[in-house]
Amino acid sequence: KAGVTQTPRYLIKTRGQQVTLSCSPISGHRSVSWYQQTPGQGLQFLFEYFSETQRNKGNFPGRFSGRQFSNSRSEMNVSTLELGDSALYLCASRPNGLGDTEAFFGQGTRLTVV
Amino acid sequence: SQQGEEDPQALSIQEGENATMNCSYKTSINNLQWYRQNSGRGLVHLILIRSNEREKHSGRLRVTLDTSKKSSSLLITASRAADTASYFCATRSNAGNMLTFGGGTRLMVKP
Fold first, then answer.
1. B21, B78, B87, B97 — which has fewest CB within 10 A?
2. Closest CB to B104 among A42, A92, A100
3. What is the Cα–Cα distance from B85 to B103, expressed in whole angstroms?
């Protein structure tokens, strides 16, 4: 069974641009969550999608958005990039909407904003 | 914001020794999970302990949970160089399904 796949693995963008990151969950998993990891703030929750609906949202500005498709694949978008958006973005999938199961993480997308 | 703190922030031991990492959190939880991360890559789930459990084992891993003190510990016995990684605790509250992570412990196991 293939794991969680995130694309691209590395990305360099310029301030002011926008970026879209993609996450394909494990087959059959319906819940996808996104996290941002930076040296200063650590791992922080961005949002969670389940069956194409955003169920939870972290404390991030509106420039961060996401969506989930009917095949459970998810994308997150960051508009008007700032230097501080440079981070490792991690996607995690779970089989169902319950929180008492482990999360399976992808390898992440390393975003550098210059 | 992070749920809590991990202690120590960094730990260096010799192969064969035991490694203990501690995690404290602030709010009531449904469960607590430990993850491992190798050098800026994805996180790998190690173990999940529910709020009504006190101890759990998995191979060389032993996790304890004390909900009265809002703390957990991860013990890795007979460590190996391959255990070198960052270890994170993450809590899930009863209010939502998101995981709230601690700051992590960087473990180095010297051969």
1. B78
2. A42
3. 13
